[in-house]
Amino acid sequence: MQIVFALLRRSYLAVAELTWSALALMALGHALLSWALMSWAGEEKLAGDGVSFLYYYLVSATTTGYGDLAPVTQAGRLVGVLFVLPGGIALFTAVLGKMLTGIGQLWRRRMMGLNDYGDRAGHFVVLGWHDDFTHRLVEMLASERMPGTPPTVLVAKALERNPLPELTDFVRTDRLASPEALARSGARRARALVVRGQNDDETLAAALVAAHCNETTHIVTYFQDERTAAMLRRQEPRIEAIASMSSELLVRAAHDPGASVVASLLFSPARRDTVFSMRVPADAPPLRYGDVLAGLKRDQKVTLVGLSDAGAVDLNCADSAAVGPGRVLYYIADHRLDPAEIDWSRMARADG
């Protein structure tokens, strides 16, 4: 019995190391030879019907053993015991083992940040890891993820495993300013990149490399020092460089009680009355800011607060300001609006 187990183990190991194509050819060859031997043994009930033999072969190989089909001749039983069962079981366990190994490898690669998401589009990419800050950032991005949109991809160093496997995919890298890591994260077709390194120097380097590798993707960065953020804005105007506003909020709250609460409400997607943005579609007619403000309030129950063009934001627009296709509107609402569902033509009529 030990010899039989040793042979089966050797057969399993040898088969498990084969490619899927070689394994499929071996399975086909074993099944055909099994059918030929059963025909030679006079097993007409098994070998006379292709469907019946396939059913018998798979039931035997998977050790299910229903017992409704079985060899009836002595020669057929010997063929089953000495050839069909050992070979079929070895092939089945090899296929099953190979599948489980492949699934395990894919999961390990995903957890260890070795996967490639270069074909992904419309997602967010977060560069850098800070325990509480990034955790909260990823949670907020996930809370606004639309159905059908791929999950966020986290690019980080000094992490052995994905810290948030239920919320994000993971790309491990030695440095944030890595074109290869950006390519694996799918940054080129991402909706936006959010960059925050361990310090302002690392953030600056990662942002510049990201801008060089991704000429159209929106990039948002966070700096502790306003001077570094201002320098990046001058060098790369398309990058949205944000500096810490804690001092500004303290001053504003001292002069205007409740200002910090308003700021928290405006930028928290988990609460009502949040600031959102949308781009005026290309097929929208020429509009005036006052008409859009009144139309959005009337039809969508939201409050328009400003617009931008080429990065310049105006939060106190004149009613006569032009709102053409491509302009970005900022509004306060309980949820994000879909520009395609808005009747822009109705807003163009001054009489509503």
Structure description:
This protein has 352 residues and is of the alpha/beta class. The protein folds into three domains: 2-111, Helix Hairpins (Orthogonal Bundle), CATH 1.10.287; 124-244, Rossmann fold (3-Layer(aba) Sandwich); 272-348, 2-Layer Sandwich (Alpha-Beta Plaits). It is built from 13 helices and twelve strands. The chain has a six-stranded parallel beta sheet, sandwiched between helices. Strands 7-12-9-10 form a four-stranded antiparallel beta sheet, with helices on one face. Strands 8-11 form a two-stranded antiparallel sheet. Helix 4 (50-61) crosses helix 5 (74-111). The mean pLDDT is 85.
Write the layout of secondary structure elements.
Blueprint: H1 2-16, H2 20-40, H3 44-47, H4 50-61, H5 74-111, E1 124-127, H6 131-143, E2 152-156, E3 168-172, H7 179-184, E4 192-195, H8 200-213, E5 218-223, H9 226-235, E6 239-243, H10 246-255, H11 259-266, E7 274-279, E8 287-288, H12 289-299, E9 303-309, E10 312-314, E11 322-323, E12 328-333, H13 344-348
Parallel strand pairs: 1-2, 1-4, 2-3, 4-5, 5-6
Antiparallel strand pairs: 7-12, 8-11, 9-10, 9-12
Helix pairs in contact: 1-5, 2-5, 4-5
How many helical stretches?
13
Low-confidence stretches: none
Distance between the termini: 89 Å
Main sheet specs: 6 strands, parallel
Number of strands: 12
Strand order across the largest sheet: 3-2-1-4-5-6
Protein name: Ion channel
